[in-house]
Design brief:
The protein has about 220 residues and is an all-alpha fold. It is built from nine helices and no strands. Pfam families: DUF6766 (PF20554).
Length: about 220
């Protein structure tokens, strides 16, 4: 058990933080949504009803959507673009280990590498493929939740409901998306630039403290 925790500490820590934050979101979102319903002259809903409400689905997946978009773009764009001095960039002046073609004879190589063919072709891009699929799924779930929440609000006011095709061009949905996307792009820009000049000893995301500013890569 001790070795398992040591070997998987980073993922376990972030998974626990995720569930802690999700529980906080559910608790406060539930209270906030019921407050809004009461202000609109409706009645409060139960927690189980809240978990399938548009309010919860929209607020959850609009954030997941932006995270997966940011990660997918970061993985892809670091193939083609570089930033001299950044720990998040490939070195401009030499070939990197991750650019080499996979060798099926390498000890403990993953099975797709040993299998070769179309399986290897997919595996070579599997990280990007999965991140993009997660983005698309989150985008669709965000759209569904946002549309559902919009129609729940319209129903309370006795107004006509929106169709999916009409809502796809609605300013609310795209405002929700872009306000999250811009924050993710800013955070990536910040780590790319700040890692040129600033350090954190012990972190794999930082260069060594005594490394020159223009030394590129970790």
């Amino acid at each position: 058990m001790k070795n398992f925790l040591r070997n998987n500490g980073l993922s376990i820590c972030f998974l626990l933080l995720f569930f802690g934050a999700l529980i906080g979101q559910i608790f406060f979102g539930f209270e906030e949504h019921n407050k809004e319903l009461i202000d609109e002259g409706s009645t409060a809903i139960t927690l189980s009803s809240y978990l399938i409400s548009g309010h919860f689905i929209q607020s959850t997946f609009e954030n997941w959507e932006s995270e997966f978009l940011q990660m997918a773009l970061f993985v892809v764009l670091t193939i083609f673009f570089m930033q001299r001095g950044s720990s998040e960039s490939k070195d401009l002046d030499k070939e990197e280990e991750f650019d080499r073609e996979p060798s099926p004879t390498r000890k403990d190589a993953p099975w797709p590498v040993k299998k070769g063919g179309w399986i290897l072709k997919i595996y070579k891009h599997s990280l990007t493929i999965v991140l993009l699929l997660l983005f698309i799924l989150s985008f669709c779930a965000h759209f569904y939740g946002s549309l559902k929440d919009e129609n729940e609000q319209l129903a309370l006011k006795g107004m006509p409901l929106e169709s999916a095709s009409d809502y796809l061009g609605d300013t609310r949905f795209w405002f929700e998306s872009f306000q999250n996307w811009q924050s993710e792009f800013l955070s990536v820009f910040a780590i790319v630039i700040l890692s040129v000049y600033l350090r954190q000893i012990g972190s794999s995301q930082s260069k060594p403290v005594d490394a020159p500013h223009m030394e590129t890569g970790e």
